Amino acid sequence: MIVAPSVLSADFSILGEEIRAIDEAGADWIHLDVMDGQFVPNITFGPPVIKKLRKCTEKPFDVHLMITDPDRYIQDFADAGSDWITVHYEAATHLHRTVSLIHDLGKKAGVSLNPHTPASVLEEILPFVDLVLVMSVNPGFGGQKFIESSLKKVSKICDMAKTLRPDLIIEVDGGVTDSNVQMLADAGCNAVVAGSYVFNSPSYSDAVASLKV
Ligand code: DX5
Ligand code: ZN
What is the pLDDT confidence band of residue 164, given thresholds at 50, 70 and 90? Predict the structure, then answer.
């Protein structure tokens, strides 16, 4: 299991130190939640902040864009040092073009689905993407309860990927803890995002280790 702590629940006044700490704690990727106050009812940070944070770790930056019309900013997020760039299916009108743009910039491309969006919408785009990010909460905030039906969605995507994209990363984001990570792995998930579970834990390394199933 790839473990990607989300810094959304970190102390933003010492973000660089928090990133160094989760790097040392064994995080595989650093998950960065970008919110625009339009696609989701919250605002976080953008490319200039990511660019500064790039100096704090060599771990891959897993950038989750919760923004409308993401094409406008793909170049900026690539230049800032993103490794994985994930856009929302619901926010991109010309998704194939967006995915191509991410690849043209030498980055890995992901597509995220909100809880209400069925796995079936992925059929045509799946051969072109490197990662699917299944939202197991409604995006916008950390610390929400895991939506159980996400497990079934992960299984469906896993089945689709067998023929359409065998090396697909299926990442799950929202309400992930040590109590549901094994079920997620059994369903076919091979990467998890965890915000509040890791950052509210007294030991980041114990929390990260408990997710490596
Ligand atoms: C929610 C974000 C998540 C969030 C997860 O919109 O995409 O990455 O940080 O937080 P937890 O793990 O607390 O549910
Ligand atoms: Zn996220």
Answer: very high
Spatial distance between the Cα atoms of 77 and 70, rounded to a whole number of angstroms: 10
Reduced to 3 states (helix: H, G, I; strand: E, B; else coil), residue 34 is: strand
The predicted pLDDT at position 102 comes to 98
Q: How far apart are the C-alpha atoms of 20 and 16, rounded to whole Å?
A: 6
pLDDT of residue 24: 98
Which numbered atom of ligand 1 lies nearest the CA of 42?
6
- Dump pLDDT digits (tens) for 15-36: 999 999 999 999 999 999 999 9
Cα atoms in the Cβ-side hemisphere of radius 13 Å centred on 21: 18
C-alpha 137 – ligand 1 centre gap (Å): 8
**Cα dist from 42 to 66, 115, 138, whole Å:** 9, 18, 12
Question: CA-CA distances (angstroms) from residue 211 to 94, 117, 127, 205?
Answer: 35, 26, 28, 10
